[in-house]
Amino acid sequence: MRFYIDPGTGSMLFAILIGLIGAAGYLLKSLAVKLRFLLSGGKHKESDEEKASFVIFSDHKRYWPVFEPVCRELDRRGVDVTYMTASPDDPALENSYEHIKAEFIGEGNRAFSKLNFLEATLFLATTPGLDVYQWKRSKRVKYYVHMLHCANESTFYRMFGLDYYDALLLSGQYQIDDQRFLEKLRDLPAKEMELIGIPYMDEMVKRLKAAPKIEKAEGECKTILIAPTWGDSSIFHKFGDKMIDKLLEAGYHVIVRPHPQSYTAEAQLIADLKARYPESEQLEWNRDNDNFEVLRRADLLISDFSGVTFDFSLVYDKPIIYADTSFDASPYDCWWIEKPTWTFSVLPKLGEQLTRENLDALPEMIERCIGDPQYAAARKEVRDETWVHVGEGAVRAADYLVAKFEELKSKEAAK
User: Which of 111, 130, 311, 394 would be a feasible disulfide site paired with 199, CB 3.0-4.6 Å?
Assistant: First the structure.
């Protein structure tokens, strides 16, 4: 007889196990410290492991472009950082920065089990869900900071995604308003919230300006990029093969770029699509860790509520088509917000909406979006709302992090 444990129960049991191991580990370490104190005649010199530290954690290699501009600025200032990654092939592991020391700490629960007992003064991550499931706040980490990895809602994380961070680095006032609403609703202590802008998008702008312009021959077919988010509300679940068929029939060059999580959470769906639509001269599958080139090559993006929508429209200044996927807000923090989400309120300004009813007219929609000047004007308006301090993101992030790090160290020294 086989026993089935649902994911929620499994996560709870794992958390209990981690808690027991952590308590035992903490007790043993405390006894060791006391023993060293007694053997040294009451004099204890702090070891390197016990000194104040600055840690950055990345749960996937795709976030190196998000962190790298900040790491570069911290390195320039001579700030020593330990960069922990859950990807064994993370580009961060081969970084050349003198003060950024990267290490692989294991994948999945192995990484979280290490983080649960981490000792650090300041901890920065883009990973939501702190203290919700298997990832617990370590009693020996003084301060947790979250930095967004996209340009839209801070409430598009799964429920309670940011509740237990101490500080948030954000890019638009509406994000602060939403988080303050949730704090009040859930009776949470007020977090520090700093508007820094979007460091990785600043980098994209620099790269785009330096890159050669892509010239297309007269009559050459347009390139359409399909890059949705993952989950039941995504394009592939709602439209799937019908949309791809329509694009191929119209003669477009099609690039399909699933969300990285799709390869894990909905592997069979992706396998079925790849089997039906193999690589060809007209269609390609893209899984580049860095999406810069694939976004640069595309003439138009078809997506849903994915953050890549804003990368494409606000950095590359190109039109989009966004799919009506009957978004189910119930798993997300935005379900609690008593007003329309910012993302769904601005998408109509950036392009046209694809529905089941107008799917047959998709080629005509594409041509209108590419040729209509109203969308270019609207992109500037949306950019101003969600991307403050353009070009200054990494500097402002480093300013906040260094100041907070020094403040925390001063408090530790005063004890």
Answer: 394
